[in-house]
């Protein structure tokens, strides 16, 4: 087939192909043999009986090593790779491997990948709509749970998707092996097959509230910090909480009472304070004791002919009795049970503290938080934050990973249906951050690896304002730090150009299905480390279900055919013919 080497450059050789060769040898792997050396190459193109063969690595003592130091000689013998060498490349000798797919170039030879190299590194699965990404993900996970000699009992897959397409593929996993379980969490309240997504408010930190309340100013962060501190005090509903409330109200009223404003405006502001923030001792209807008489607190603010409050001295004396300078105002937030109603109350008290009410700009920014929190609390979305009793982060994770009879769940599917993109993005970020925080606390480090799969990743991995406000994005942080704690991300998307460059560049494994958009191809060419033009060229002619796979889980980039999953995920494409056409007999 090969008559000899014509020339050798730094990265490839030009080889003479015999005239009687009628086989399609493009993309085949070949071996250059000379002086007890076996150098692996790949046929990139064939023109006028001359093949361009790039160098990929070297076989030494039945092991493959990527890259080469010395090139083959002009006298090297050239042949197609044999079965033993192909077996080394595709993991036949690796007892920690699983089936990925088959090679269409080598008669559907099974291609295996090392489980560690695949699931311990961030992966990007890229391809246009209909190219086979979702089917591939379903098949890979099915292959993982169908290994005959290994039981991945302790595995943890968390899938986030905006549709319920994986339900059919995984819901009967328990029938194949009673040790395996699948669990569905959904935002669709009409779905009786799943559990409603619920997030404990006290497990959310400042960063989570920054996301869900769509913070756009640094000053709003300090408001959220104080709100959380206040709600953790108020939620205890004890004598200390009452004293803290009275102290906040009293200080706010005093600051307004002695501000440089006309009496009518002062009265309006104080009435506004007491309409949102009040206690049994401080409210507009309480009877204030004077000398030999009592008067309703609201009537103390009647204005006389001189534009002064008729009972200003009484007001001051009564209010100052609640100011307690010994109350520690430096307490930090501690997780306790509280509700959205209690959070709203805490925010109201936050808005009257620290002189916010006297600063128009700060109060306006604070009011924006109040409006957004109130909107959540007075909509059906409040159900996603309605957890009936206190649970800590370990108990919350257990609630995700245990069945009703305490069986172990390996696949948790979060389906973000029936909510808008803004809330869906916030929910995913919150749960992912809780998972990451939980994994970081486990000792020894990496003792409970977690694999996160995010479908339609371009919807979630956007350039949001949290990078500017918080200085980081949770996905970028996991991309940089997640591997050492065992938190791995798998991004599935048809629009890689919309992904964060930081996240995509941290991926070590890639499955690239056919991509149609030139902007996407240009982007991944720039961002993905060590991607070659050959890999880009290979994917352009791929059929659905075929992909180019490369990265740490592969010795060399290869075209892989992914078998159809069984059962298949729900097809999200509507059959127009079946829905529109009816049989007609004239």
A few lines on this structure:
Helices cover 35% and strands 20% of the residues. The chain contains 20 helices and 21 strands.
List descriptors.
seven-stranded antiparallel beta sheet; 586 residues; Elongation Factor Tu (Ef-tu), domain 3; ten-stranded mixed beta sheet; 3 domains; elongated; alpha/beta; 21 strands
Description:
The strands form four sheets. Strands 13-12-16-11-17-18-10-19-20-21 form a ten-stranded mixed sheet. By secondary structure, the protein is of the alpha/beta class. It folds into three domains: 88 residues, Beta Barrel (Elongation Factor Tu (Ef-tu), domain 3), CATH 2.40.30; 156 residues, no CATH class; 175 residues, no CATH class. Helix 8 packs antiparallel against helix 9.
Biggest sheet: strands side by side, in what order?
Answer: 13-12-16-11-17-18-10-19-20-21
Helix and strand content put the structural class at alpha/beta
Number of discrete domains: 3
Task: Determine the number of helices (DSSP H or I, runs of at least 4 residues).
Answer: 20
Tally the beta strands.
Answer: 21
User: Low-confidence parts lasting 5 or more residues at pLDDT below 50?
Assistant: none
Q: Mean pLDDT across all residues, rounded? A: 90
For the terminal residues, how far apart are their CA atoms?
63 Å
Q: In this structure, how is the largest beta sheet organized?
A: 10 strands, mixed
The value of Rg in angstroms is 32 Å
Strand content: 15-25%
